Amino acid sequence: MKSSKSEPQQSARDRLLGAAQILFYNDGIAGTGIDAVVKRAGVAKKSLYNNFASKAELVETYLQIRHQEWLSLYEARLQQAKTSKEGVLAVFLAYQDHAEHAYERGFRGCGLLNAAAELPADAPGRQAVRRHKEQVESILAEHLLGLTAGDKTKALDTARLFSFVLEGAMSRAGLEGNGECVRQASKMANAMMEAM
């Protein structure tokens, strides 16, 4: 007789977050009702409100998770980087990894920007997305300092340019459903760094 090891069952909170991640990305925040999240998670509706005060809190947690997912992709790529230039390219590669993830209904662009587009201008979630994008730009600037002989202004200006190129590439990649635009943006950034 085989002994079967059963995996620990996920908590209701984790199942709700997993369901929200998939549904918010697939259908959008506005297009995803609480009932759909609860049904996909396979939990009672009361479980949602035992874990989250509101849908807004669930959305904020979703945005934090998306941010952490990207940071994890970046950290994995950064471990392979040995130079400042490779550090910059690690940012692009993390976005490429994000674009090439096996999403349930295909890649639809940056989940954070998609969410921000649905939220009111003064929503805390939009500020969370802005902080993420500013952090990415700051990471780029830190790496670029090594390529600009410590010229902070040049590093900041180049980081801003690269972040704009990256965001444009992600938008197009979302429309095209693959990471090719991000690969092209990475090549552009590499060529610009070679010319520094």
Provide structural commentary:
GO terms for molecular function: DNA binding. Residues 10-70 form the HTH tetR-type domain. Residues 33-52 bind DNA. This protein is mainly α and 196 residues long. It contains nine helices and no strands. It has helices at 12-27, 34-41, 45-51, 55-78, 84-99, 111-118, 124-145, 152-176, 180-194. The mean pLDDT is 94.
- Shape summary: elongated
The main sheet comes to: none
Beta-strand percent range: under 5%
Low-confidence stretches: none
Q: What is the number of strand segments?
A: 0
How much helix is in the residues? over 70%
Give the N-to-C terminal Cα separation.
Answer: 66 Å
Radius of gyration: 19 Å
What series of H and E elements makes up the topology? HHHHHHHHH
Query: Mean pLDDT across all residues, rounded?
Result: 94
Structural class by secondary-structure content: mainly alpha
Count every helix, treating DSSP H or I runs of 4 or more residues as helices. 9
Pfam families: TetR_N
Protein name: TetR/AcrR family transcriptional regulator
InterPro entries: Homeodomain-like_sf, HTH_TetR, Tet_transcr_reg_TetR-rel_C_sf
DNA-binding region: 33-52
